[in-house]
Design a protein that fits this description.
By secondary structure, the protein is of the alpha/beta class. It contains 13 helices and 12 strands. It has 2 domains: about 5-15 and about 255-375, Aspartate Aminotransferase, domain 1 (Alpha-Beta Complex), CATH 3.90.1150; about 15-250, Type I PLP-dependent aspartate aminotransferase-like (Major domain) (Aspartate Aminotransferase, domain 2), CATH 3.40.640.10. About 40% of the residues lie in helices and about 10% in strands. The strands form 3 sheets. The chain has a 7-stranded mixed beta sheet with strand order 2-8-7-6-5-3-4, sandwiched between helices. Helix 2 runs parallel beside helix 9. The longest helix has about 35 residues, at about 240-275. It is globular and about 65 Å long. It catalyses: (sulfur carrier)-H + L-cysteine = (sulfur carrier)-SH + L-alanine.
Length: about 375
């Protein structure tokens, strides 16, 4: 078999044809989007069209979309102690769920002593009762809860969390990077005050992200200063080609969403059924709502690092979880937060599907797992 099977779409996706075309066309533009001459205005038009596309996709106004260099930067920008809560007071503390991406767990610009973690259940879902306890009687807080976990795929109760947070006078940031293009997401429907996105998770290029803020949000302090770009929220000349491609990817992803989600859900069912029939594999977060494309599994005695290498040698690209650890296979902090012992946290493998995944790809992955299960897990 000469072709490889790519099942690591939660780490990054192939570049969509529409995004590639937009990027190549934008590379031909001469002007700086901040210049007032015709060439500059043309570059600005491409940026603003992409801004409007993303805003419409998530229920925001274009003026509230801030383009960044990545989802990580968008998260860091959002986690700002200067934000003013629903009561008008500045938020003084940060609450993050224990299963957040590393860029959120890092806490942005909040001092370490003002950060607390929200527990999650054994199924990998945020514990809203613990959130209420942390919010009770304290100063206004910024709360950060992801829309969908990047490892388990478990959908988080962000709309319910928003009600709890707002009642306590706080703000809710939602890392929506895994959700966009896989499930319907609207910042107004979930009650998000800030939401982060990333182009390369939906078929856009790497190196482009966005932070979307709710209308009237006050106190967002820029990280990068020195220019008036992005309505004074992020200095630096915009990545016109990357932003144009981001907009094209958003448009293509949302147009294909209903059909893609249905097809990926069906393929995921076949994949999970096949995995569980071999070597006693177990699907994690199986009994809660998940992204239609995500599978995290483990088996007794499985070592993730060995399994990932074994799949790779069989021509199948998978991962052990987040792809943000300099290529290192590390124990999953998500599974540790869910209460699993270190042996399980070190032995979980993630397979994630995308718009071009075919039934034959699933068959190839299952054949690889059959070989690995027989060789790696011998008593």
């Amino acid at each position: 078999m000469s072709s490889r099977v790519y099942l690591d779409w939660n780490a990054t996706t192939p570049l969509r044809a529409e995004a590639r075309a937009a990027m190549l066309a934008a590379y031909e533009l001469i002007g700086n989007p901040s210049s007032v001459h015709a060439e500059g205005r043309e570059a600005r038009r491409w940026v603003e069209e992409a801004r409007a596309t993303l805003a419409a996709a998530v229920g925001a106004r274009p003026r509230n979309v801030v383009f960044t260099s990545s989802g990580t930067e968008a998260n860091a920008l959002a986690l700002s102690p200067g934000l003013r809560g629903r009561s008008g007071e500045p938020v003084q503390r940060l609450l993050v769920s224990a299963i957040e991406h590393a860029s959120v767990l890092a806490g942005g610009r909040f001092p370490a002593e003002s950060i607390n973690q929200i527990r999650v259940t054994r199924a990998g879902v945020v514990d809203l009762d613990h959130l209420r306890e942390l919010l009770a009687g304290g100063s206004p807080a910024l709360v950060s809860i992801m829309a969908a976990n990047n490892e388990t795929g478990a959908l988080q109760p962000v709309a319910d969390a928003a009600l709890v947070v707002h009642e306590a006078g706080g703000l809710l940031h939602v890392d929506s990077i895994q959700a966009l293009g896989k499930i319907a997401f609207n910042i107004n429907q979930v009650g998000a005050d800030l939401a982060s996105f990333s182009a390369h998770k939906i078929g856009g290029p790497k190196g482009v992200g966005a932070l979307v803020v709710s209308e009237g949000l006050a106190g967002l302090e820029p990280i990068l200063r020195g220019g008036g770009q992005e309505l004074n929220r992020r200095a630096g000349t915009e990545n016109v080609a990357g932003i144009a491609a981001f907009g094209a990817a958003v448009k293509a992803a949302l147009q294909a969403l209903p059909e893609d989600a249905k097809r990926m859900s069906s393929l995921r069912y076949d994949l999970e059924k096949g995995l569980c029939a071999i070597a006693g594999a177990t699907i994690l977060s199986k009994d809660v709502d998940r992204l239609p494309n995500s599978v995290l599994f483990t088996a007794p005695g499985l070592k993730a690092e060995t399994a990932v290498i074994g799949f790779d040698l069989e021509g199948v690209a998978v991962s052990s979880g987040s792809a943000c650890s300099s290529g290192k296979v590390q124990p999953s902090h998500v599974l540790s937060a869910m209460g699993f012992d270190p042996a399980v946290a070190q032995g979980a493998v993630r397979l994630s599907l995308g718009w071009s995944t075919e039934p034959e790809d699933i068959n190839r992955a299952l054949e690889a797992w059959r070989k690995l299960g027989n060789s790696l897990l011998k008593p």
